[in-house]
Amino acid sequence: MATITRSVDVALAPDQVWDAVRDWGHVHQRLCPGALTDCQVEEGVRTVTFANGLVARELIVAVDDEARRLVWSVVGSALLTHHNGAMQVLPEGSGSRIVWTADILPHDAAERVAGFMDLGCAAMKTTLEG
Asked: How many Cα atoms sit within 13 Å of 71 on the Cβ side?
């Protein structure tokens, strides 16, 4: 299993950043516009469309307001046999740090998933600090 971790520092208070992260049904508007072009929600599952046209169904596992942590799992993927994603918002100086972790199988999908995460982190920073 491959574990990929990315972090991005944002010049906003943790509660402001968490408000955008926890709004998981509007991730394509509030967090990653440009990297994501659409998000549809149905019964605890969001279906996101990436800028390159890839579509992923993500089961929302947990929204922890106290820990400011969102957990999800990609389901029904042709690319991945296992996926567990987590995003947590932490205080960092006068702003926040978003830590995004993904555990995936197969291991050889790590480079592709890491690329999506890098694009997402750049979009989050631009959008949140916008």
From this structure: 7
What is the pTM for the complete model shown?
0.95
Domain range annotation of the chain: 2-129
**How is domain 2-129 classified at the architecture level of CATH?**
2-Layer Sandwich (3.30)
What pLDDT sits at residue 22?
A: 98
Please give the structure tokens belonging to residue 104: 């995936």
Share in percent of the chain as helix, strand, coil (round to 5): 30, 50, 20
Cross-strand pairs, 55: 49
Q: Element (H or E) spanning 102, and its range?
A: strand 95-105
- Residues 88, 2 contacting (CB under 8 angstroms): no
